[in-house]
Amino acid sequence: MNSNKEIRLEDGRVETIESIYQVYRDPLYRFVYRYSGDQQLSIDIVQDIFEKLIKKQQYSPEKGRFKTYLFQIAYNTMITKLKRRQKLRTLLPFLASERPTAISIEEKMSVQKAVQRLPEEQRAVILLTYYHDLSQKEIATILEVPIGTVKSRIHHAIKKLKEELEVDGDER
Q1: What number of other Cβ atoms are within 10 A of residue 22's Cβ?
Q2: Of 96, 100, 121, 127, which is least packed with CB atoms within 10 Å of its CB?
Q3: Is there a contact between 39 and 47 (Cβ–Cβ < 8 Å)?
Q4: How far is the CA of 68 from the CAs of 18, 28, 63, 74, 107, in angstroms?
Q5: pTM of the predicted model, to two decimals?
Q6: Alpha helix locations (H) across the chain?
Q7: Angle of the 105-117 helix axis to the 147-165 helix axis, nearest 10
Q8: What's the rounded Cα separation, in Å, for the pair 103 and 126?
Q9: Please, are residues 29 and 78 in contact by the beta-carbon 8 Å criterion?
């Protein structure tokens, strides 16, 4: 963790990311875990929060307490990830199973093969969206295409995967 980065808090104190991490890591983890019941998701979200602070600190003491700011980031990140997870379960149910051990090797291989057979552009958006949990805006930046193109590619890729894997589109 880059402990050299500093943030000015609402009371005027300046703290390093490392010291902020030590103070807020556990409370943020407990909040996310109590909401989601998912240990790994909670760990990932806490890590994401501090990565966001390191990459692009947008906290301004005039806007309120720093703790509130951190919990807002945690809540928004968690909701986004939970929505993506639910969408993945709806579109490809056995790919995002609650119990990964319940997925047969044959099912995993058939999904993997189906994704590999997608056209290159569609495969890229599926992998970036569902395997790397990136937003459509981030994907558009990475692929250097408009966000509408990303949305279209996701739509067409999901449609092809549903057809190939014979997933009923009405399972919502």
Answers
A1: 12
A2: 100
A3: no
A4: 18, 11, 10, 10, 43
A5: 0.54
A6: 17-36, 39-55, 66-91, 105-117, 120-126, 136-143, 147-165
A7: 130
A8: 20
A9: no
